[in-house]
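User: Study the shape:
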Amino acid sequence: MSETHPQPAEQVLPPRRLDPRTVLIRALPGLPSAILAVPVVLAASRGSGLTLAIALMISALLMGVALIAGWLSWRMFTYQVLPDQLVISRGIIHRSRRSIPAQRIQDVSIKQGVLARLIGLAEVRIETGGGEKDEGRLDSVSLAEAHRLRELLRGMSRAAAGSATVTPLSSDADEPILFQLRFGRLLFFGLFRFSLLWIAAILGAAQYLDQALDLDWDRWAQVWDGARQELQSRLSLAFALGATGVAIGLGLMAGVIRTILQYYGFKLSLADGRFRYSRGLLTRSEVVVARRQIQLGLVEWGLLSGALGWCAFKVQTLGGSDHVSGRQELAPFARASEVQPLIALAGLPVFDRSGLRPVSAWHTRIALTGFVAIPALILVVAAIWFPLVGLLLFTLPLPLVVALLRRRHHRYALAETSLQVSRGVLKRREWTVPYGNIQSVTLRRGPLQRRMGVTSVRIDTAGGSGLNGPHIHDLLHRDATELVRRLVERVEAARSSAR
């Protein structure tokens, strides 16, 4: 039997402000840019009489104005927890007062960036199921205040959803771990997230330094030309392979580092009808996903990692897009045997590949037209004026293979309780959408589709509309119309039985 815990009267406190160190947290990220802007301004104003002292004074003045504006913004921001709502007031010139009723509060997440962790601050995000990014967000409160708010708001939400009694919530330590990424698996995961972003970073840094330091690139070009002529006779296949190996090694290293920063310490637990996961090395995030908010399930298989049996399990929740309240990764790198129990705990049916049907054969022809024929024509025409562009024609075999394989992997089925869709070649995706969660079904035909007599069926859930959804492409028009009719019948039946 649940124990009665009425909300104490002393919890109704006057409006509070964020931690005063919020001003520092907001100002520090812009400090490096302000400092590095000084040499850029000097280089741009060469010959106009602007000295280093004047540039520093202007930079200091701008930073002072930013600090004053930040202080005013902090001063005018308050929050107050009332027995049935959270009230947030903000604004310097235009004041706003937002009330979030307790019954709309789904849960509370806590996030800590690097600097916030060093000085003991945290961001509190109130999950409401709405699509607005900052509907309920307190960006800098003390860690103790963050935990106090989380427990208090959870209790209010439960009381509003049920009765005047509140079931005691389990603590984080009491929640059993459903899935976690240990360090060895984390490193292996990073190898599949190969990235060449380091090249873009080097080029961006070079461009910035060129503006700041006025580098003489003509002189460096002459040096490079001399070095190239010196090394040209010594270049060999081994040298080319070595350079390629270095680039691949750096790409793998970048993927591993990015993965560690994002997923370090990933742990998933379930308690009180809510999934909770935490992750991150420098920026530590804790996100809560209410099971009743889950709209659909998605299992993704990478090209190489999928061949080795690794996949990711994601869910789409109320809230929209890929924001923290939208698509969530409950298992970013797991075996299928680890994902199946999580799918069941999320209240989703099992994905059954045996009942899937292929889309129209026109799907392959449309892909060949859009991925191969049209790009090839554009490249041929462009090569008339820019001959080097013609080298890109050698990259067309990859989209050709993808186009030929698309129909094999694009299938769908109306299962007993859910719509099931698979799609993708380089990354295979399998969606499971319970009928009761489907919000809209749309028939769409592009110019090429109309000419070929095929139609796409677009499936949208609450908070989950977008291009990367469980849509079914290139069905014969009569088949698409019949599919929509049957799908709507099942959606209405599911909603009628839920009433």
